[in-house]
Amino acid sequence: LRGQWKDDADRMDAAIADYSAALKLQPSVSAAPMARSSILARRNDPAKDDLGAAISDLDQLVAQFPKSAEILQQRADLYRRDRRFDAMIADLDQLLDLRPASAAAFMARGDAHAELHQFDAAAADYNKVVKLSPDLPASYVARGNFRSQIGEDIGALADFDHAIELYPRESDAFSGRAYVLLRQGDIKGALGAFNRALSFDDKDAYVLCGRATLYQITGDADSAIRDYAKAVDLEPGEPYTPLLLNIAKARAGKS
User: Fold this and answer.
1) Average pLDDT in the 58-77 region?
2) Which residues contact 65 (CB under 8 A, 6 or more apart)?
3) Following DSSP, what letter does each residue of 101-169 receive, concatenated?
């Protein structure tokens, strides 16, 4: 209880210490490693290998409760953050044995296969997502993004269009469509799609960077700098956007 109170008060280090003490007294208590894992994952201090420690706590719980889909899902999420995609797939395989109709698990596994360039397996998983959740725009956005990644532009645009038909304010579908059109050289179409995406969510740094790139291509340096600068403000820890901003400024003679 004291660990929970300290966590609620944003005293993460103290909460971790309390949960660690509880585990020393009663190693088999499942609530303590679950809570400690959650705090470690949120603190995420690379110097202390917080993600590794959080995964270790979940390892203990999986050993105790091997049929818990929730614990497997949490560990798979941490494996994703730690870019351990083979391990992520192994957990999702087990989860899908327990919940064979989980569209979210198929989507996550598709993402992991795509990261590993296992494209046939990824395509099968994304197709399963669409089959299980045909009325969910996110199903088509996920498959569209994958198809865009592997250069299947026609299929990608069809998926994005279908998502927009289901939900006309689906900003991710418009941004996905914009990136495909930009790659195809359809500047006008891409700009329109970027603008529609940002009309629904003007704080999407990824979309702002895409539109900034388009502005650079068309020679609109001021607009490119404005969008890159806004993206930097939205995600100050992202390492590449400041570089793109500085390049845009240098090309415009404003560095």
Assistant:
1) 95
2) 30, 71
3) T-HHHHHHHHHHHHHTT-HHHHHHHHHHHHHH-TT-HHHHHHHHHHHHHTT-HHHHHHHHHHHHHH-TT
**Which distant-in-sequence residues (6+ apart) come within 8 Å of 171 by Cβ?**
196, 197, 198, 200, 201, 204, 207
pLDDT tens digits, residue range 108-155? 999 999 999 999 999 999 999 999 999 999 999 999 999 999 999 999
What is the number of other CB atoms lying within 10 angstroms of the CB of residue 19? 26
Distance CA 248, CA 157 (A): 29
Give per-residue burial for 88-110: e unless 16+ CB within 10 Å, then b. bbbbbebbbeeeeebbebbbbbb
Which residues are within 8 A (CB) of 40 and not within 5 positions of it... i.e. 6 or more apart? 16, 50, 51, 53, 54, 57
Distance from C-alpha of 69 to C-alpha of 4, rounded to nearest angstrom? 24
> Whole-prediction pTM value?
0.85
Give me the long-range contacts of 117-120 (CB less than 8 A, separation at least 24): 119/150
